[in-house]
Structures are given as C-alpha cells and as structure tokens.
Design a protein that fits this description.
Largest sheet: 6 strands, mixed
Radius of gyration: 20 Å
Number of strands: 9
Strand order of the largest sheet: 2-3-1-4-5-6
CATH architecture of the largest domain: 3-Layer(aba) Sandwich
Number of helices: 9
Distance between the termini: 33 Å
Number of domains: 2
Order of helices and strands: EHEEHEHEHEHHEEHHEH
Structural class: alpha/beta
Bound molecules: guanosine-5'-diphosphate, magnesium ion
Shape: globular
Length: 299
C-alpha cells in the first residue's frame, strides 16, 4: 500500500559531457557515488544516487553525457543509457555551463523535446562566470530556448544554491514508496564502485586517447575484517597502451594504485590492499561481447 505521506521519484540529470552532472549527484548525496575527472565522457553508465529523508526518497540518475559524433558501440551505448533515463523520470535536470551556451547543449536540448515531465535548466559552474553581471543575461537568453519549468544556477563543486535546487526536486516528487533501504546511497555494488574509483585515477593520470580505451574489472574481492583485498584488471584496447599505463619501472601504476587506495579507504571506511594488472584486448570498446562482460547494458 502506498504511504500517503511519503514521496519518491526519479530525477534524471542530463547534459553534454563535463557540465558537472556527477559532481552534483555526489554533492547532493554527500558521498562519492559517481567518479569525476576534468575529462569529458568520464561517466559511462547510468548510476543512481539515492537520497532519503523522513518523508521522501529521490533517485538521482547520473547519466553519461549526451553527445554527437563517435560511432563506436560504447558511445552509442552511453547515449542510449542517458536518453533512456528520460523515459521513466519524474523530473529532468538539464545541466549546462553558466559560462556560455554551446552547440553541444543544443544537441541535448533537441533530445529533450519529447520528454513529458518538467525540465529544470541548471546552469552550473557559476563560480567561473566573469564578470558576475554576465550571469543574468545568460539566464535570460537561456529561458527563451525552451519552456523550462524553472532555471536554477548553481555551483556543484562549491555547493552554491543546492538548497534551492533540492527544494525544487523534492516538490516535484509524486507520492510513492521507498524503493531502496533508508541507508542506501546508490544502486551500485562494491565491485562496481571499486572499479570506477580505479578508473577515475587512471583517467586523471593518462592523456590523449589512452583514458578512453580503458576499462577496469574487479577480478577478486575479499573482506578480511578491517582489511579488504582487491585484485583489479585494467583493460586497454591497444597492446602499445599497456606500457603507457604501467609507466617507467611501474611508476605510473604505483602512483595510480596509491591514489585509488586512499579514496577506497575513505569511501568504504576500511583498509585496502590493492593489486593491479594491465591486459590488452583489442577494440573492446567496439565489441558487444566485451562490453557486456564489462557490465555495459547492450540493448
Ligand atoms: N569551477 C567549477 N568546476 C566544476 C563545478 N562542478 C564540476 N566542476 C568540474 O567540472 C569537471 C567535470 O565534472 P563532472 O562532474 O565529471 O562532469 P560530468 O561529465 O557532467 O559528470 C570536473 O573537473 C569538475 O571538478 C563547479 O561548480 N565549478
Ligand atoms: Mg559524469
């Protein structure tokens, strides 16, 4: 039976790559749910951040950035995951950068045309708007682009105006039951989150095309009281990238492993022993079977 006083619903967070969608989910849930780097196309999956209050539960749907271009299967899969999340959303937050509207934002807006639920425009990174007086004209011109239910400028990284955004999110929720336990913060399991944290460190440390050809898989996970033992396999899609990832005398991989371990220990509140191995699998990002094995939903 539906609890009359309880509200719950899905809020899809969409936008072109790099606008700060994952940063927003982490800030609202107050935990690292989704990895963040300065590189576009960091988020590859649809990831839920769950925020529960006394009388509500919001499922914040972090999505891969919607983008034109690459025909690789992984890119199509990412776009489909993002656009698919719009179907069952009760509210859409469309994130752009407050520093300026781009063609890539138009591309996303075209895909929002058929969405039935209200769409709130969320211009992020207001801290970067210079001079400050440029914000108002940006908001005015943006409001003419679509019939937005509201426009809420924020800084996700500096946690500016998130209270106002949360108010709007909560007021949009339909009556509904709790779908996740009250203490859940995400729908993703430990293996997924561990692999993602390692991928975040890899993406930050590597350049050019190497980060985009990476996948991380947890091969072994063992809990021994206050120590967690993890073995991960890092997949690259070209043999020549193995050496780049490992670095001179293994220096790169060591640095990446140390950074990942620190984060894992903070997120899971436990000690970690992390072992990494690099393997190559040619063109995995364009291979349906490989993608499926690595947890991508191919439909
Ligand atoms: N200056 C500034 N940078 C931000 C803000 N929010 C996110 N970023 C940065 O923008 C980059 C992309 O963020 P991310 O959350 O991964 O974007 P996503 O691709 O949309 O998920 C990262 O370097 C973030 O630190 C913000 O409010 N201000
Ligand atoms: Mg992201």
């Amino acid at each position: 039976m539906t609890n009359k006083l309880f509200h719950s619903g899905y809020v899809a967070i969409v936008g072109r790559p790099n606008t700060g969608k994952s940063t927003l989910v982490n800030a609202l849930v107050r935990e690292k749910i989704s990895i963040v780097t300065s590189k576009p196309q960091t988020t590859r999956h649809r990831i839920l951040g769950v925020l529960t209050g006394d009388d509500y539960q919001v499922m914040l749907v972090d999505t891969p950035g919607i983008h034109a271009g690459s025909r690789k299967l992984i890119n199509k899969t990412m776009n489909r995951a993002a656009v698919g999340s719009l179907t069952d959303a009760d509210l859409v937050l469309f994130m752009v950068e407050a520093t300026g509207w781009t063609k890539a934002d138009d591309y996303v807006l075209e895909r929002l045309g058929s969405v039935r639920c209200p769409c709130v425009l969320v211009p992020n990174k207001v801290d970067l708007v210079k001079p400050k007086s440029a914000l108002l004209p940006f908001l005015e011109s943006s409001s003419r682009r679509h019939d937005f239910a509201d426009i809420v400028p924020i800084s996700a990284a500096r946690e500016k105006n998130l209270d106002r955004l949360l108010e709007i999110v909560l007021s949009s929720l339909p009556k509904g039951d709790m779908l996740f336990p009250a203490d859940a913060r995400t729908d993703r399991n430990a293996e997924f989150r561990i692999a993602e944290i390692v991928r975040e460190k890899l993406m930050e440390a590597l350049y050019q095309e190497v980060p985009y050809g990476l996948a991380v898989e947890v091969a072994q996970l063992q809990n021994r009281g206050d120590l967690t033992l993890v073995e991960v396999t890092i997949w690259v899609d070209q043999e020549s990238h193995c050496g780049i990832v490992v670095g001179n005398g293994g220096a790169n991989l060591k640095r990446i492993g140390t950074a990942a371990r620190k984060d894992l220990e903070a997120v899971f509140n436990n000690r970690f022993h992390l072992q990494t191995r690099v393997k190559s699998r040619k063109n995995w990002s364009d291979n349906a079977r490989a993608l499926q094995q690595l947890g991508y939903e191919i439909r």
